[in-house]
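Project channel, design review

CF: Before we commit to the Anopheles dirus constructs, I'd like one complete example in the thread so the newer folks can see what an input/output pair looks like. Taking DNA 3'-5' helicase.
RD: sounds good, go ahead.
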Amino acid sequence: MSIIKSTSVVNRNTAACTAPWHKEEGGQAGYDLVGTPAEDELGPNPPFATMAKLALPQIPFPTEHVHVSEPEDETFTLNHLEPTIRKAFPKLKAFNKVQMAVGKTILQSDDSIVVNAPTGSGKTVILELAMMKLLTQARDSNTSFRIVYIAPTRSLCAEKFQDWKVRFTPLGISCIQFDGDNAVEDVGKLNDYRLVLSTPEKWELFTRRWDDQNVAVVLRPIRLFLIDEIQVMNDSERGANLELVVSRMKYIDARVCREQKNAGGVAEPIRFIAVSACIPNVDDFAQWLRSDRNAVPFTFDETNRTTRIERHVLSFPSASNPYKFELNLNYKLPAIIEQYSRQKPTLVFCTSRKSVESTAKFLARSNMKRTVPGGAMLHELSSNLANRNLQDCVAKGVAYHHAGLLHSDRNQIENHFRAGHLAVLCCTSTLCMGVNLPAYLVIVKSTFNHAGKDYSDNYILQMIGRAGRAEYSEDGVAVILTTDANMARYRKIVTETVPIESQLHRKLPELLNSEIAHGIIFDQPAVMEWIKSTFFFVRARANPDHYHLTGGRLLEEEVEKLCTETIESLEANELIMKQRSNMIVPSACGRLMARNQLSFQTMKLLQQDMKGKETLSEMLALITRASEFSEYKCRQGEKKILNALNGPTISATVCDGGDELAAGIRFRWPQRISTTGAKVYCLVQAVFGNLSIHDHGLHQEAAKIVTLGARIARFIVGLLTANRARFEQGHFRALVSVTTLLQCFQTKLWENSPFLTKQLDQIGPRLASHLADRGKTTFQAIRDSDPREIECILKKQPPFGNDIVNYVSGLPEFTIAVKKSDADPPAFTCTVGQKNANYDPEISVCFSVLVGDSVNRVLLHQDNCTMESIPVVGCTWPLTLKDTAIDSISAHLICQDWTGLDCSHTLRLTDQLTTVKHRQTAITNFFPNQSAVNETVLTVDKCTVPSVLELSRLSANTSKANVTFYSEDNRSFTSALEVSRFGENVTGLNFTAFDSTIFEKKLECPNIPIGSVLSVSKPIEPKKPLRSILKPAPAVLAADISVCQAAAIDRDQLQQPLKCFPPKEIFQTDELQYIFQPERYTLSFTLCSPVDDIAECFKKYNVFIHNFKTFPSEPEESLLVSERTARKRKNFDLGPASSVICSDDE
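CF: and here is what came back for DNA 3'-5' helicase:
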């Protein structure tokens, strides 16, 4: 069965069509131009992988172009199509000149084709005819096939998907959209569809694993590869990715054909169809796409465009900066729209999201004339939108569109604009890529992007190409607004087209490393074979100056030198290794870099700055410095929200519209948020902390950042393992930190988050917050809960609570222990077990086991462990200690995809610490016993300051001595006593007692802190409890204990409060955690608990006030401290300890 009823055949050698570009100049209000081509779209930029060993076809170029002039009886029409196929074009009445010229070659040959035709000339129909041709061939031969359509933006993919799904599914071509907006969990499901629509970035990630069985079954049947808007290859940020995707498909095609020939079958190479609006060097693309199939180039000028575009370039004086210039253009827009729009739909391209919104709001408030439906209809349209600001604009007939809006809002805006309900649509460059909208007038409002850099030439052409689409209008107008200085440049852009250049050389290190890691490049000759198969080599021969090459006979030598230098750079950074006979093999780091798609710059950053001792916050800060985050610029309108998140507490109004206070991010950025790294650092923690972000644009970026962060963290885990020899001081702490962070990135929660129920089905952030507020902060708490209680908290109906409790009851409960044998020398083992008898095997859990010693050495690292690896009796690993002189061994079990299931254990190997007994009154102003005095019992051999833990353990019975363990080696004391200024009204006194003989003895030890040996003749009952925290003194008074005569102290002379500042090492983490347990609070506080102030005080190394008598002799270097005014605070609402002074007088 043939798709065409006619038997006429087009000669391949005369199929190319061309005519000189039509240029017409004129000028009035700026510069008026008529007739020029435009282009269409772009897409994101990820990492690379590859293709190679394909030598450039030896075919003479350039291809000769012949202007086609068909006889009347040879005219190609819809009637030539088979009736079944004709039904796929219900709205097409007749083929235009471009479609007729290319259609015969499409349908009557199997050649690859490259088409350069102006926007609005019907290039999409050319792609559809190629699909119909393949469908007919497959029916005749009863063979399977697959078609891949690549477009630079998701919006263009979505538009084509909605159209083709309706038209082609009845014909047997099932469609699937495979891009960022529509995730496919199982890539094997792609095998169920015949047409896959994707972006270059998504397809690049997919084809990386081309040798995987699930991916191979999708790639093998591909017979047609459609590339829309191929001029994207000229984009400096995204062009290399599209070139990489096409090159890899050529490599896969060559390999499959070779296998088919070796098996005695007939090779069926992929047919490439590439279309664009502005690729003047179409011959270069045809030369590049040639393989076993011939490639035919077609070029059409503006005379073949079905709609006529009138172009204007208007210039204005520049402002102090580009952003102010763009803002000033708002006041020019109403007059420009009224002059050129003829009351027809207008599309305004703005530089940034903020500019899009501000421009739309300005036009909505202006008195500009606009023809739109009545107020009732606009009100109904706006009521269906989620964004409130957008609702206000739509009610006035103006709308805006950018990637920060909800997907549903974007679709509604596009549909309303197509229906003619909106007079003006302000948008970013996302709509300049092939999306058909009924815009009569297109305005390019300023010619720089959100980063302050000028748009590329192709971007400008794409934008003005949105004017006057054939489906909606016979003509259109495009207006470019720029500065006086750029006037000449944009005049040239709209009258001429510049050849498309390769951008592959900008990503050469990543690309070569990926090819080597995949085994495609294995020696120096293979490097040259690979580089000759790229579009880069085609353009380097045609335009060597652009790539800083000499050209001519020396071109290959210079290209080889460029590749050699790149290979040497990879070797210097330990990504590859050279072996005998010029063999090139990847290192473990090189494979990691390729697998995790990291840039060469990020790789060097991590290798140079990783120390092996990073804490959780330090590791997070290091990850956020990766170059992969560079596209997430900190916009001016986002700084308020980001700085609010960075505070100690934030108003929920900033996040989700509530009125309550919420805690800020866990690790604060030290300065105000103004850079990309600070923004990423803040957003990641906002996600981990379950903080809602009301700004949808930030919310979208945060989701992408977390996904990217997981990839970088996964790479660091492998890097630490592969490069362990580089870390002379060990890397256990860094490994624990990054493994924990990897868990956080994958679960989107901190490792100790109280919102861990968010991981359960049907429970989102808000419901998890409700459960956390009721104390359901662990899985054990959920297991122990009554299902009806869960339903009451969440306001759900039965059996919701039963489902939650039953599911949590099926989660594993891990145990981990490090054990020491009694043998000599002793042996050590680590055992992991699972103690939940009700564990559900259907719940998949993957975890890592990390064991290290106190000197930061890794003793055991087991990654990607599963429940199947743990028998009933547990799994045990032997541990080998290289050094027995260690204090402890720590073991951690960290789940990779669950928060709340981790466990750890520490085995201490050192002797028991020295015991010192004392009695110490707790801080009487905050704890029950307010009348006890301080009594410190000191020994001659040991002298210590009472610990925080001891202070917290004071009970009503002060006669009981508390025991605390101290190690003299781990404690260091200050030799100076810091003294506050005399108090004006000191009525409450607190003392430390000691034996005077001990004091005499201690005078011989100058390094003992004087706060530990202060003496009074006898304790005195305080008149009233001390209930204040003093502000740290700006200066200190040093006391020399050698001149103190404690025995001569008179009680009447007691008048000065002393404030002691011990060093940071005095307080250990477990002591601070013990004293500030919430259940120990006994008083009813107001907004700010005094315990918060106590913690703040300890952080500044303060000790609470003790009042003593002045010593008879003061040191000569005494420094008087300026007197400070005291003020009283009620209800224990003390505020920050560093800024509050309270007195005890009433």
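RD: helpful, thanks. The chain has a mean pLDDT of 75.
CF: The chain has 36 helices and 32 strands.
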